[in-house]
Amino acid sequence: MSWLRSSPLRQSLTRNSGNGIPFLSSTNGNGTGVSSTATALRQRPIDAATDCDPRACYDSFCKHWQQAYEIIQRSEPPQRLPSHDDVLGVVSHLDFMVTLLLVELHHCNKVALPTADAAPPPAPCLEYMLSENLLDKLYEWGRTTGRYADAVRLEQLKLYELLVSHSRHQLLCHEPFLRPLLKILASSQGEIFQADLEKRLVILLNQLCVVLMQNVHLLDLFFFSAEQEQHKQTTNSDEIQRSSRNNSGTNFIIFSLLIPYVHREGSIGHQARDALLLCMSLSQKNSNVGTYIAQYSSMCPLLVTGLGGLYSRLPNSIELTSIDWHRITPDDVTEIPELTLFMNALEFCNAVVQVAHEMIKNQLLDFLYQGFIVPVLGPAILQVSICVLFSHLSNCLRFVCGVGS
């Protein structure tokens, strides 16, 4: 019955994010060769036993970026718009670079960028990526790719997903990684994506929430730096962002991107709600999060209106299959899709009240009374049978209070 039981908040805090990156099987549309090292790595699974020459991996990584950057420079406006072959070529090179990064990161216990007096960097490919500002160059080029922009964005999200899952919080402290990450997040606000893009975006946001839960001191990066990045953009999506900002200019970019998925069904909705609960838990540790959610986001009214809408879809009658039936059971919930959705929404609201900051908790309870109990449940007393009404009410009360099953 419950998404929270199959994908619980507690699992988010302990799971090892090892999501694999599905690599493209297409070849480079520009005819450029690929290194034998990267080719060999792609032919077998990558694990702790993967044997590779670090120098060869580094040389291959640099070569692939040089070839990709040549394509980017040739296809930058106003010279000409990127073609299908240009995009395919860049994505193909990026695919190999991701493979090499994955091997390198897998063999590093943690990402440790070198200092002036330190030994050679333990992650030279990663160091090269940051020093050459690869992520920012890739993002800026992606904005010019027209109808191929979503395909490029998808590959960028896969790359960030890989880096965040393997390096945890270390990379968030470095501007060459954080700045383009905030740019791609900010440019995603107000956009409607296809399912594969939505999935990658929500996975990345979920991973960021897990990292922030364990590193609360990094939260301010996604309040203030995100706003600064928005001012640097000139795309239409940023006009949407500016128009939706509150008077204080506060914007918790991760949370605001997750809100549209709060009532989504399927795995995307499950992961989004999991991440939203992590944000709610963060509000107990950081008052800025609590203030933003309670005063500047639409989270509480959205939860209540969704709950009311789902309640209105519940059946007006219950078909009794047994003479001793006296209450709604978990089996009944499973067999009635509308009731399943309603109970999932109620469970999420209940979880929010349990883990959120006092400001959020009080606001949600007030909205529940003013926006659900009075206008929805009140009229329902006159519209459905007493048997159905009390069955639904007792089911809700037993669930919220944790009594019975």
| Largest sheet: number of strands, sense, barrel closure | none
Low-confidence stretches: 1-45, 232-248
Provide the gyration radius in Å.
25 Å
Helix content: 55-70%
What would you call the quaternary organization?
Answer: single chain
Mean pLDDT: 78
Describe this structure in words.
This protein has 405 residues and is mainly alpha-helical. Among the domains are: 1-167, no CATH class; 306-401, no CATH class. 65% of the residues lie in helices and 0% in strands. 36% of the residues are buried.
In short:
This is UPF0518 protein GJ17503. By secondary structure, the chain is mainly α.
Write the layout of secondary structure elements.
Blueprint: H1 3-6, H2 9-14, H3 36-42, H4 54-74, H5 84-106, H6 124-131, H7 134-142, H8 149-167, H9 175-186, H10 195-214, H11 224-232, H12 236-244, H13 253-258, H14 266-285, H15 287-296, H16 299-312, H17 330-335, H18 337-355, H19 358-383, H20 386-401
